[in-house]
Structure prediction request, 439 residues.
Amino acid sequence: MPSGTDQKSLAGIPIKVIANHGAFTGFHWKRRAVQLLVIALAILIPASGLFRIDPEAGAFVVVNRQIWFSDFFLVAGLWVLLASSLVFLYSAAGTVFCGWACPQNTLAEWANNLTHKLLGKRAEVSLTGEAPRVAVAKNRIVNWLLLGLILLGTAMFFALIPLFYFYPPKLVWAFVTMQPDAQLARSLHWIYTVCVLIIFMDVAVIRHFWCRFSCIYRVWQHSFKTKQTLHIKYDASRADECAKCNYCTTACFIDLDPRKTEVYDSCINCGECVDACNRIHAKKETPGLLRFEMGARDPGGAGKFRTAATSLFGRTKWTAAFWLLGALMIAWGSWTYQPYHVAVYRSETPQAHTIHKYRIAISNKLYQPAEFKVQIKGLPKNGYRLSADSIGLLPAARGSLTLDVAKNLPRGMYSIIVGVSAANGWVGHFRIQHYSEQE
Prediction:
């Protein structure tokens, strides 16, 4: 134990507290969290019934309700709202979707990091076409096999995600466990195999080549970029501080120089270069030379927020109008949405110019069973015969009844109303005109 004198001597030593610039600060781990959240949402959205496609019914499914193309306001409103939201995102934040949410970029980054761990930091799938330089100590068959198996397993997992958009989770599980099910397409195993091969080639070879040279979606985003869009700002007034440093360039996995970004370049606003520069300058307790900025690309200083906001509003006022239009269309479509559908068709080929039989078709657009009762108005009770006055339908199923109109009705035109009521209070009607030639 130190003596009292020693303790007084130690107490006299000045202690300086330095902020902890650990791995969980900056944009890196925030971006990782967003990327994982996007992948989770890509699975949870269809699995929960929030949105998917029912191939058997040929309809969209939103919140476990079938949305037909006849539900115009919901379908059109959804696309108008989505398109205007994306245009607003591109105009404000540029290609931030690519760096923070795009699954292709997420997989490419993950594959690069895995390759570095197993084959060395210089084992890079270079965008310049150079062959990967595998570390001598890691150039072993075991490492190559492990890399291949992990990439193949990843491809098999991600190839399952599209299935959730066409089949409910129980059918996807039946497919994974190879249980026979009549609702699964016969060619599904072949389709899945092709998807696995495509994703495997992507994570093994293509990676950021797609982002840099082939992504049409990125070109679409560039259509809305301007000088005021979110971009990397370089403080050129302190250029002497990075004269012999290229840490930001090394940190950029798109192979760009963040100090020389342009309006139309391959930057995806990931923020890795900003984190890299801040880590270097954290030792001197000074801010880095790179940062995100909106507004005009003025090399002399930072853009003003008010000016940037005014410019953004001027560029997106029409987008805001379309966004509001889409929201109103969805609201009206939701208010007028019909969970069931009833229609009446001719049930036989016309003979002697007279129709006597009709088919009452009832559709259940909800993914829960439903019971219906049918009533006929406009005809005397002895003037028609129903095959049944009630019908039960399974979830998202269709059924029909037969209406047989008597042939001995007095000559004339009859306006017949077919009324269908559900157990939950819904009521639907369909009107037909029936002509009787009986003298």
User: Anything to note?
Assistant: The first helix runs from residue 4 to 11.
